[in-house]
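Re: your question from the hallway

Yes, I did run it. Sequences:
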Amino acid sequence: MKDHPGLSLQQVPVLTDADAWSQWYAFCRDALHCPDFFVARAPKREAIMQAYYMGDTGSQRELIAEHLVANQKFHDQLTASLARSELVMSKLDAGVVVYLCAGMDFGLELATMAGLNGTLFLVDYAESVVADLKRELAKHRDSFPNAQVLHTPVHLVADELARHGVLLGMVDAVVAIRGLHRVPNEERVLTLASVKSLLKPEGILAITELFENDRPQDRPASPGAWHWHTLSYQTHLQPMRLVHDSGPVLENQDDKCRLLVFQ
Ligand SMILES: C[S@@+](CC[C@H](N)C(=O)[O-])C[C@H]1O[C@@H](n2cnc3c(N)ncnc32)[C@H](O)[C@@H]1O
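Structure:
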């Protein structure tokens, strides 16, 4: 794991495996020409790498096409679910919004929701992802003048925000989509504590992922993912309260995800 200037890595160990994310993302972008594939589940990642290295372009194309359809479905369902919640929309619209584990998906949608008067921080720690996110945002600078990318592990996000003038108690909404379950337990606990301090008293945290209570017994946990029960989030986020639970209705490549909103 590389050290980055300005981050207090000695005080709090960086637990994220950002280099692995960077390599996988660069492979999807450069070898597969399909950056969207990088959110694929582990079995599909293995299958496509095998097809790629065996030169089986037919299977490769088929797997990618299948994945893109499934990912788009998740995307549409989640966008509709966010849009249906007045509370979520009121915080995303013109507020200070932090998108944790941003990756390459949903950033532009959140920037659109934040609008010209809002401020959006996209947080990721994988170097290739951060470089591409910055490039992508630069193309839309006129539409989203207040969207910025922060290169930091999520548990140190408060330090990084402070460098951009956003202090504790100044954030309207924190969003995490298919992200927090990738953050190791110890780092996740630190991150949730930090989110609580960053939010305004009425601020919200919106989490969407596969929760342990929705994971079928025959669906193994992916390597590099630690699925939490929704109750674990409730415990760690106290005194915030769970104010919205969509139920396991968001289909992410066969996984049933939920949207939880804490306030
Ligand atoms: C599965 S992708 C999800 C991306 C996007 N949110 C989506 O739904 O398409 C997880 C992202 O989280 C980032 N990530 C994982 N652990 C992280 C950590 N501890 N700190 C910051 N970013 C992290 C990875 O680099 C990756 O871009």
